[in-house]
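Entry 14. Ran structure prediction on the chain below.
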Amino acid sequence: MSFRPGDRVFGMCPSRSNGAHAEYVCIPERAPIAIMPANTHFDEAVVCEGAFYANSGLRKFHVGRGHKILIYGASGAIGSAAVQLAKAYGAEVTAVVATQHLELVKSLGAARAIDYTAEDFTRIGETFDFVFEAVGKTSFFGYRRLLKPKGTFMATDVGPWGQYLPLILWSSIARNNRVLVPLPPRGSGHAFVEFLRARMEAGQFRAVVDRRYPLDAIADAYRYVETGKKVGIVVIDVAAADESAHVAQEGRILCKPTRDASDVGNRRNPSKASQSETCFPLLGASAQ
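Output, structure tokens:
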């Protein structure tokens, strides 16, 4: 896809260009970016990273109609995305969260919400095709009774004290796909962002934003994220709320930043910009 000055885009930085906490970023047009859905604010489009990792497992195992999936940690960045995407694929979702997040996960599409502070969700007497551990905090052995005979346990990392590692190795040797930490396929970012845009336009996916911080308070944002108590994502408002609007001069399309939205433009001299690169202001960046 070719982009033009004024296009409103969203997406992810390339994998080797980690981090986007700056006023501007310059990336190739072939990078994982896409035109934003209509009527979407920039702070509502900072959703890709958590959803990217959530979707990798769902797609790998073709989660869909007729499947039952339990998601532990369903209120985090990855978990809240997994609930919505699994629902969009047609699966029946059971979400495990704390008391205060029960209504949230129901609103995201969970058919059942379980309060792990009130009951032992591993003893609910039900089995699932998939169990998705979205926070890496619990033991695999408690999940075994939740899995159907050919069920799959998916995790987002190696678990507490790396306890999933030997199980992942065993699963790989046995080739039974019982325990996995699925990673997104290399080079799949652009197709995923286009896919997510379609889900957002269809009303099947939305941002779950916990807090917003200005760029000069980014350290506070990360301190909050590190508490492990956030819900969904934390957004960094890169453009100041009272920043004056820029105007187009000498054929250059400039940006008009606000707290959560902006036209996309190229502030550099267009004659010095590579035609294969897109330069745009970052008005919402997430500390996931």
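The two ends are 28 Å apart (CA to CA). Will compare against last week's run tomorrow.
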